[in-house]
Design goal:
The chain is an alpha/beta fold. It contains 16 helices and 13 strands.
Length: about 400
């Protein structure tokens, strides 16, 4: 049997007055999700344990059937693995966002969603100017990068309190800088980055074009060397993962999943939705399981843009679920599930921890769904799974 999980990151939301008290998911045209829900099983799943902060790191670990309380060692360590950077026992990785700060305010957590080809030379310049034997920067995609510190006692850096830049949009960054007994080195690097990046030729061009410059790095989400059991060891299935985001691909690598590269994926609204479906179908020729992650709804939530969120959800429904159902519908020997990793409400512009709506459809799935897939209808069905681990146990059962 083939198993497919589609994860529209941050899709779950709150009702909005602008949408007549509907959520973006409820306002979107989701023909395929509704069909699956009407002929499948729906309800709520708790993806964020009480002891963990809501985020894509925790949510995706949970949806892949891992217990984040036991295995999570920090977000940046997962992203580093995606880049082929496997931490040693004396190393700590930090997420290194390229951001736009204007008069001490966090104007843009993504530096205008800077293109990778522009970002890489900026990271190279940081290595040249402030990289040392114990500090190294590694380029990722767009605004998301990694800084690795070699330190005698990694626990010292794990005690530093950091804040995600997308949580402090338009706020005074001086109130949210990394702080704690050992934060000095981190603060100095962030301060030095401003002098290096502000006058870089790439940023000069971006300013001339009316685009947000990547004029500072923001270090956060630190982590130490993770140790995940492989998906095959725990589940007995060969699997693949498809995402434009280093975090999710890093989890996939550490879990021993095949990381499938799809041309044209961006981690934003304009990603190659159709390509993700095509490559997922191809990956299932040699795998039993595929996990398709789409970042767009989460980005729309952070940007406070419900229209963009609706657009992303409709693209997922039409360009990803449509082809998958068309391909496997007649075969019958498959199961598909749709669920976000956590809510990213447009009104909050950050993650929240409520249980999320899910649907399952396919062979062996008892029909107990809803007419229209959304937060309100699935809430009426109630909490079906208290953890992602329990959800995965149910989804994969024979």
């Amino acid at each position: 049997m083939k198993h497919i999980i589609v994860v529209p990151d941050g899709m779950a939301d709150y009702p909005l007055e602008e949408l007549n008290d509907r959520t973006p998911l409820e306002a979107a045209r989701t023909t395929n999700m509704d069909f699956m829900a009407q002929n499948g099983f729906a309800g709520l799943v708790k993806t964020i344990p009480d002891k963990c902060a809501p985020g894509s790191d925790i949510g995706n670990l949970a949806l892949l059937g891992y217990n984040p309380v036991k295995c999570f060692t920090g977000r940046a360590a997962l992203e580093a693995a995606s880049m082929g950077v496997y931490l040693k026992d004396d190393e700590v990785a930090f997420r290194c966002n390229l951001v736009t700060v204007n008069e001490h305010a966090m104007e843009d957590y993504s530096a205008g969603h800077i293109k990778t080809e522009e970002a890489v030379p900026l990271i190279d310049e940081l290595n040249k100017e402030i990289g040392e034997e114990h500090v190294r920067f590694y380029p990722g995609k767009s605004y998301r990068h990694i800084a690795v510190f070699k330190i005698r006692n990694p626990k010292d850096f794990m005690s530093i309190k950091t804040v995600p830049p997308h949580d402090i949009l338009n706020k005074d960054v001086r109130k949210f800088l990394p702080h704690g007994t050992h934060a000095n080195m981190i603060l100095k690097l962030m301060e030095k980055s401003k002098k290096i990046l502000e006058n870089h030729r790439i940023n000069n061009v971006r300013v001339d074009l009316g685009e947000n410059p990547a004029n500072m790095i923001w270090l956060w989400g630190q982590g130490t060397r993770p140790d995940l059991p492989s998906f095959y060891e725990t589940r007995g299935l060969k699997g693949a993962i498809i995402s434009a985001v280093d975090l999710v691909n890093g989890i996939g690598k550490l879990a021993g999943l095949e990381v499938v590269s799809v041309p044209g994926v961006t981690g934003y609204y304009d990603t190659n939705y159709k390509g993700k479906a095509e490559y997922a179908i191809e990956a299932l020729k040699k795998n039993d399981f595929v996990y398709i992650h789409i970042e767009g709804p989460d980005e729309a939530g952070h940007n406070g843009d419900y229209n963009a969120k609706i657009h992303c959800i409709e693209q997922i429904d039409r360009e990803i679920l449509g082809p998958i159902l068309n391909h496997f519908g007649d075969a019958g020997d498959f199961r598909a599930a749709v669920m976000p990793d956590h809510p990213t409400p447009v009104s909050l512009r950050t993650h929240s921890r409520e249980p999320v709506c899910f649907l399952m459809y396919g062979k062996g799935i008892t029909k107990d769904g809803v007419k229209h897939f959304g937060e309100t209808s699935t809430k009426e069905k109630g909490l079906k799974f208290k953890s992602g681990e329990a959800m995965m146990d149910f989804f994969l059962k024979k």
